[in-house]
Write a structure and sequence with these properties.
With 432 residues, the chain is of the alpha+beta class. The strands form four sheets. A five-stranded antiparallel β-sheet has the order 1-2-3-5-4. Strands 11-10-13-14-15 form a five-stranded antiparallel β-sheet, with no helix packed on it. The chain has a three-stranded mixed β-sheet with strand order 8-9-12, with no helix packed on it. Helices cover 29% and strands 19% of the residues. α4 packs antiparallel against α10 and α9 runs antiparallel to α10. The termini are far apart.
Length: 432
Amino acid sequence: MENLQGGMLALEHRYAVDAEVGRQGLATVYRGTQHPFERPVTIRAFDLFEEATNAPELVEHIKKGAQLAASLDHDGVLRVVDFGELTADVPFVVSERGSGPTLAAFLEQSGTMTLEEVVSLIERLAVIVDESHMRGVIHGSLSPHVVTLPHKDVNRACIGQFCLSVPMSEIRKIDGAMLSFALVAGLAPELFKEGATPTRASDVYAIGTLAYMALSGQHPYFEDVNDTSEGLLAIQTGTPRSLIDFGFSQAIWDAIDPVIGRDPDARPESAQEVAEALRAAAFPPKVEPKPEPVDDSYEDEVFIAPSDAPSPGAVAWGVVVLLLVLSNAAWFSWVGKAPVPAASTATVPAASVEVLRPGVELDSLPSGARAFLEGQNAAELGETPLAVNPDIGANGRATIRLEKRGYAPAFVDVVPAANGNRLVLKLNPSEP
């Protein structure tokens, strides 16, 4: 067939064919410009169909795929803008041309991406793929050669060549068709079976493969991209090399391993699930440290106790206050009677006698009440038992609210005093 560069009659009135990019699968790919809009486009001419025994069926297959791809309207989709036939049995598809390098070219130059870049890339691609699935559109051959990175920005990644794959069983019937790495890199293992067609599960596999390649710089089944036969055998019988061997954590590998396996039923149901699992493994949420347990040996430990009844009365809180007063009175009594060493006649200054420690250890009966700081800097302090530093409030004062399901809320004021801190319990009136 005549080389397309320079323009064929079927294209020259709408497109300028600027340069031949090369062969990708069953098509020769060209860079072009759509007139009169001066829009950069990619032209794929499926010239190998001339050698197929069932060329008309293949042409119809590509036509239906192009129609489906044209229905997508996401900013991450390189949309199909035209379809036609150069000659009998040689269809062409024109689609938007992405700016920036393909993912394949980027990885060939850089080797890998950072973990943050990979997570962001997979999140972006997952949104595009899942939205296409909701519209009933399966990509079918999602490989790094059809993903472009405008300005090398993973957050603006685009996917092209939707629905333009040909079943492997049909490819094998075409004389001259070569199973290159670019053609099979995004194909799931089940697609090599006779009569198999792409599914959502095979697109999810491709998403996992892209993540693996961006992390490690290698395809999970191809050690040498130039040895396609060995790679195809590995896809159907082998086991991918663990990402742990590339220095990644077990959690990262656990997020990717089931996605790129040969069992489609073991894969996540959506690409979004892959993205979420990868982010959770890469950047697990920080776990707040548990408060240190309260030491029961402290003599000045204070228990703030909601009543056992759902609506506690003032009597129960009065008892607690009375116990505090009595304990403090006993403390002062003991201090007053304590013998003074003979070597010293100095009196103990009042400021050295602490009613409570500077850090108040707060508990409730029963434990497990939630403590909240009241006022302008309102915040949740945690669950009793917990230690409360009085400088959390303005001028050393703090009002704390205790809440527990089944009990009325209680309020405690931590008030600075000359000889330590003082707790003031705000009693809740009993219900009539």
